[in-house]
Amino acid sequence: MSAGNSEDKPNLRSIASLAGVSHMTVSRVLNDHPNIRPETREKVLRVVEELNYQRNSAARALATRRSRRIGVIVDRPVEIGPDSTLRAVEHAAREAGYSVSSVAASPDDDGVRPREAVAYLTAHGIDALCVIAPRASSVDVLRELTDGLPTLIVKADDDPNFLTASVDQRLGATLAVQHLMDLGHREIAHVAGPLDWLDARARERGWHAHLKKAGLHIPPAFVGDWSADSGYEFAVAFDELPPFTAIFAANDQMALGILHGFRDRGIRVPEDVSVVGFDDLSVSRHFLPTLTTVRQDFHALGTLAVEILVAALEGGGTERRSRIAPELIVRESTAGPRTM
């Protein structure tokens, strides 16, 4: 799939830049979407006329056959992050004049397999596909099934087969570890998510790489399952102070379980062990202590995913890989290390 058009021909992005609007707004104007302010419509159409922009005949023919529907596959949508991204995709798609059909997929025996999910969505005439919270095993299957279908995977790494969009997971892990190092911590453990999940793998690699770069000890990561229960299981395994002074947990839910488990064991946070999470769930500021975490902007991520797919469908130039920077949110669960 082409990543963009030649620079000498006008496209959605060049029109958007001159009109001072997003290329999704340009798309909505060109497709006669009703919810456009008259002054915005007039401004966009003026630029279209000035640039003498025309969709080529193949694109016009394709448009007459399109369903204006984006299919979305979500691995394990019960998790808060994927569900939040799905809601953002649905909102952004509506704004761009597209509908969304979504399927929850899981490689587990009792779930819908990725192959079945793709078959279901393509049977409903989708124009493009977005995959949220993918596992490595799911992406491998998708390579066989989506040839010719514009497909975006929400993942951090570049991919020769797909468009990609993500929050920069490795940068988020680096921010978390660097914060702990700045406080003086030198023994930093990691409670990872399931490592078949691409986001969990990227966060684990970011933690590992930053410790290695600093010349610090790298303990084995404990692999949880994203749940607070798995964080609790990790924490209550210690009958006395653990051999580390800080933990980077791969999501806020596992961090919550860690706080609970340490409390039951009489281990104080942050006096004995500092804890950093990942996601910045709305409830994280109400944990006791309030949780230092890495914020992911799920709304921006969902909007970006739709922008890329709409540009790919409607002739706007687009990058094959786009990333959003995360943000460190410092609260009460981190402090300087105890004396070892």
Written account of the structure:
With 340 residues, the protein is α/β, with parallel strands linked by helices. The chain has two domains: 81-167 and 298-324, Response regulator (Rossmann fold), CATH 3.40.50.2300; 169-296, Response regulator (Rossmann fold), CATH 3.40.50. 43% of the residues lie in helices and 15% in strands. The protein has twelve helices and twelve strands. The strands form three sheets. It has a six-stranded parallel β-sheet, sandwiched between helices. Strands 7-6-8-9 form a four-stranded parallel β-sheet, with helices on both faces. The protein has a two-stranded antiparallel ribbon with strand order 10-12. The radius of gyration is 23 Å and the shape is elongated.
Gist of the model:
By secondary structure, the chain is an alpha/beta fold.
Distance between the termini: 55 Å
Q: Which parts are unreliable, with pLDDT below 50 for 5 consecutive residues or more?
A: 1-7, 56-64
SSE topology string: HHHHEHEHEHEEHEHEHEHEEHEE
Sheet of most strands: 6 strands, parallel
Strand line-up in the sheet with most strands: 2-1-3-4-5-11
Q: What structural category characterises the helix and strand content?
A: alpha/beta
Radius of gyration: 23 Å
Strand content: 15-25%
Q: Count structural domains.
A: 2
Instruction: Write the CATH fold name of the largest domain.
Output: Rossmann fold
Could you estimate the helical fraction of the residues in percent? 40-55%
Task: Count every helix, treating DSSP H or I runs of 4 or more residues as helices.
Answer: 12
Protein name: LacI family DNA-binding transcriptional regulator
InterPro entries: HTH_LacI, LacI/GalR-like_sensor, Lambda_DNA-bd_dom_sf, Peripla_BP_I
GO molecular function: DNA-binding transcription factor activity; transcription cis-regulatory region binding
Domain HTH lacI-type: 10-64
